[in-house]
UniProtKB/TrEMBL annotation:
The lineage of its organism: Eukaryota, Fungi, Dikarya, Basidiomycota, Pucciniomycotina. GO terms for molecular function: ATP binding; lipid kinase activity. Residues 168-313 form the DAGKc domain. GO terms for biological process: sphingosine biosynthetic process. It comes from the Eukaryota. Coiled coil: none annotated. It comes from Leucosporidium creatinivorum. This is ATP-NAD kinase-like domain-containing protein. Keywords: ATP-binding, Kinase, Nucleotide-binding, Transferase. InterPro entries: ATP-NAD_kinase_N (IPR017438), Diacylglycerol_kinase_cat_dom (IPR001206), Lipid_Phosphate_FormReg (IPR050187), NAD/diacylglycerol_kinase_sf (IPR016064), YegS/DAGK_C (IPR045540). One of its GO terms (cellular component) is membrane.
Amino acid sequence: MVSCCPCFNSDDLHDDYIPLPMSPTSAAANGRALPDQYELLLVSKQSQSPVNLLLLDEGLVVTRRKKNALGQVAASLSISKASSSCIKTFPYLQVLSARSTRSSPEATATRVSIAAVYSKGGTGPAKLFQLEGDVHEVGHDREERERGSCRVEWWCEELMRRAYDGVKPNRRLRVLLNPIGGKGKAKQLWETDISPVLRAAACVVKVEHTGPSSSPSNATNLARTHDFTAYDALVTVSGDGIVHEVLNGLACRPDGLAALRSTPIIPIPAGSGNALQVNLEGPQRANDCVWAALAAIKGTPVALDLCSITQKDKRYYSFLSQAFGLMADLDLGTEHLRWMGDTRFTVGYVQGALTRRTYPVELAVKIAPNGTDKAFLAKSYNDALARPPPPIDDQSGAGDALPELQFGTAEDELPEEARGRVHQDLPERLEEGWHTLKTDVQFVYGGKLPFVAKDVKLFPPASGNDGLIDLAIVGPISRMDALSGMDGAATGQIFHNSNTRYYRCSSYRLTPLTPKGYVSIDGESVPHEPFQVEVHKALARCLALKGSFWGKQISMH
């Protein structure tokens, strides 16, 4: 029978029928009959209606309303007059499983079960689709029926081969679930949306609930004892906060480097902030748990830079952002609005813009080559986006220990170059090397990835694995400029704003010059005191379906 999980509307299957997209390399596209071995005709158990399954270059095609096998009518089909009773192809990337079973040698039918992820139009919310039906063997004796059953078995094996080409099936996944994440809905999302997808793909899953930061079961402690040889990936079901905890737990181990590089992390968005998911799969998938589960099953490793943050005698790690001033207030001063999700950032920004509050700061920055040329940064990003992602260099001979700090800590004396080049403003252009800025700012925001929230693309040209970090800085501005400063935030227009200073650097030190305030690291609160940031290239690993961070060309103004 054709069956779907409760969240899937089977009417969508009827409404989404479109002409069959023939492959230029397929036999049908050249006017020849489709090879019989690549198609199956199922009879649904429930309605006894036929369902055709066809393997094309583009993926698995499901056809209904036809009582004849496609192979019998393919000669009369053409690209311009293709069947109007076919749904769009399920790309093989979205196929989870295919299996055949036969109750006994004497049985005249073979049961076929298929599971896949369905996304209407290729961009709609992903849902689990399951299909089950019987293939009736035509034959006069047992031997002929067994040959038919073997053909069905081969067809399922061929579909699985295509579905998992280059990917290990049945991944071993350790899942860390925050039961209070996402307004308390993380557990429900796991049960209704995420777990069924992983089960359909026959993944081996171990689920553990995380506790508060003071408990032994917090995510940092669980990561400290994580056996990366026993699992293929570590799945977090919550928001960015648990990713931050997991990365710090892995990094603080004696074998921190090996643990980080051997533990791909998959964030399944079930928290109030899901920026890592946005940067991996795009803003349209920001809250798509099923799509993220598919990444856990089929994703390819992506290298992720980490930043060392030093404060006094402490060292911890950041994967996303560091915020001071208004942006830190948005992260930490709007906790009472967390129920609003990402909307709380907009509300907090408007409040801060109206007050015109500024924050005195001393900022020492080691500028990268061409690091303040916005046009150069945008072009470099666009060029990189047009190229296939480079292979990951795991540097197997680098040992287990994390890299040493190259630029010292926040307690060390600044380099002589930084002390010799002091600015009392925010220059638009700075030469390569160390500079010190002493001025008032509305905010200083450091970021490793383009999106800091679903609707806030603050660092459009940022790369997750270039070994550098981007700084967006805004000085004192009028209320009108401040209110309009977030216009187009979702598409990255802040980058082009003339009030935004944009610096790319390898290290920086921020010293607050007020006694009280907020400092936010990956959305988590840290002491309001000097901190130093240094980037470590490709230290961690994530999984993404396309094997790279999501990206979009930056328009050149």
